[in-house]
Hints:
0% strand; 6 helices; 211 residues
Amino acid sequence: MEFLGSSWLFLPLKIIAYGYIFSFMQNIIHSTANEEEQMPDLPGFDDVLGGAFRLAVTVLICFALPVAFALLRFLEQLSIQAPDVPASAMIATMVLGCLYFPMAFLAVAMKDTALAANPLVVVPAILKVPLEYLVTTILVIGIYTLREFGGLAVYFAGASGQHTRDMSMLFLTFGVRAVWSLISVYLLTVSMRILGLLYVTNKQKFGWFDR
């Protein structure tokens, strides 16, 4: 994803990549839900577009409000007439979105449909296990924050290293980025394992597959 950059020319490849990442995360949640103790096999490419769609809808449902508020504030700064949105509203909706997202993602991954991200499924599930879910959310967000800060640190450290004429420094830079990429995937795997364990320990309370 870093290699592809921000060019619109690579948008189809990015969609496939995000779809594959979703399938990878979903596999880990399913294997944990089945109480398997070994790492599942890597997913195929047969449902990458569906995975990208489910991931996009989940993110949209969780963060549509803060994104809309941010857009309104941006338009206001450009002196374009728009409703005045206080910064507190944007922060509050972002926090709520972060609290909502882990359960929404878990529901979508387990039910294999983007419709599972709707509040009628997610909110009752959160209210059934509030303490367990709060701990899970803190862990997942903490791991995500660690991945982001670590990625930024490696990026800025490597930015200067890539312009050096010292070959040993250049190879060291590539080596550090490669190692961090593996660590990042590991942390992603751990966070999905945590979500899967939340489901395993509370699946009777959730009752998502009860007839």
